[in-house]
Give the backbone structure.
Amino acid sequence: MFFGVLARDYPYHHARGWLLHFDGTLTQTKIPGSFGWDITPSIVAAAMVPSYRGKSTYLLMTKYNNYAGVGITLGDGHNKIAVLDPAAAQIDEYSSTNTAVMKEVLTMEGPTQFPGGTPGQTYEWCISSAVVDPTTSSVFVNSEDGHLYRWNLKTNTMSESIQLNTPLPQAYTATIVGQDGTVYTTNNSMFYAVRK
């Protein structure tokens, strides 16, 4: 089980929290993810990411925000989403303690500058879940910039987007998919159904 926490080090680590893994005996068995406190990670089959050369059969998609002005070294506001390898490690760039965390396989920074923010600050990916579509090797994810995006994992690009509403800071929007392929999401307290 993967479980996100906001640890005792708050607001250090830029208030990113940690994504922890526990086995059936509730023993922590894997290295932590570098973000986790308010996200339900999505499982991504490793085969969906052609550039991946590791040994894991599955990867994890999660938001990967770097909150502007938070923490000892202060986050820069370059808010991202990420695909992580739960079985490989790298040194966490957001921690001052050389902590080993899950290795980044792909990252994607938010595409829209946050008005009046720090240089390079983007709108957050303030999501509670995303949709993984194995048929197109894509992830559908909602952004506070008012758009629903298709993140193509083959090309590591935002291959499509649809504007749902005007930008609005909001918390924990969910994105799910129905049996017929309709993507359901929320934005600015509105419920949307998106089909091609």
User: Anything to note?
Assistant: Residues 89 and 191 are 38 Å apart (CA to CA).
